Amino acid sequence: MNNLKLKGITLGLSISLLLAGCGNDESAQQNVQEDEKPSLSEALDYTITGVEPGAGLTQLTKDTLEAYDNLEGWELEESSTVGMLAALDDAIKNEEPIIISGWSPHWKFAAYDLKFLEDPKGAFGGVENIQTIARKGLEEDMPNAYKILDTFHWELEDIESIVLAAQEISMEEAAKNWVEANPEKVNEWIEGTEKVDGKDIELVLTPWDTERATAQVMYEVLVQQGYNVTLTPVDPVIMFQAIATGKGDASLAPWLPTTHGSFYEEYKEEIVDLGPNLTGGKNGLVVPAYMDIDSIEDLQPKE
């Protein structure tokens, strides 16, 4: 073999080894970068963004943190519904990770592409009903209002349409527009009742938009029937206390059997349960759809 040919082979082998070496370096560097990249749990600082301290959903989230071994070291950052929604909006605008305590029906599911994380242990419970409760003696004192409250029932689509509209206009206007656009449903609720002349009635509610929508619709219906209606927003435990002690007449806001279940058990002997006014509600941990996670069990404990 001549020297020129030998030099060519040697040069080619050297280049191949050099390229191979570079490839290994790049691969090693990439592996190091991937190892250094924080996990989703680390990026979230092992924190779930919650709502009001007194909300049933807050206690459910705390119970969930206890139920899952892989959530050891995680914390619930209690805030408010407004604060939680602001944090969610900021995260989505920047396409950052976030986990919130969430519920449906709620307008956020129409405004954003969100998903519930699977809850294999059922810590958040199953399907929820929104219930109507009344004080003892309401049926005797206001039989027509009692009958309307007892008959009232609607669907997820109804309440969601009002809450969506209320992002552009006031909740009062959105509810009034819905009542005017749905006379058949309203007539079903008031069938067999008579109008009254200025009878006072107080409805107690929680400050969630869905419950505001429900209460505002009932406000419109009862006002049309001649009642002077007062709407009083309070924390859930106060809501049950108010109905149990007769300081409030009725509420269309309790979520059962899970969200407000502990309050219901405490006061069920002092209230009248009129049954669900809406079915199909849900609670859980909610994330933007762009997050690569599907189950609570996909999260890692804090080391």
TrEMBL record:
Entry keyword Cell membrane: yes
Domain ABC-type glycine betaine transport system substrate-binding intervals: 39-180, 199-301
Localization annotation: Cell membrane
Gene Ontology MF: a single term: carnitine transmembrane transporter activity
GO biological process, one term: choline transport
Membrane spanning stretches: none
Principal location class: membrane
Alphabetized SUPFAM superfamilies for the sequence: Periplasmic binding protein-like II (SSF53850)
InterPro entries: ABC_Gly_betaine_transp_sub-bd
Keyword line: Cell membrane, Membrane, Transport
Entry GO terms, CC: ATP-binding cassette (ABC) transporter complex
Pfam families reported for this sequence: OpuAC
PANTHER family according to UniProt: GLYCINE BETAINE/PROLINE BETAINE TRANSPORT SYSTEM PERMEASE PROTEIN PROW, GLYCINE BETAINE_PROLINE BETAINE TRANSPORT SYSTEM PERMEASE PROTEIN PROW
Name of the protein: Glycine/betaine ABC transporter
UniProt organism field: Ureibacillus massiliensis 4400831 = CIP 108448 = CCUG 49529
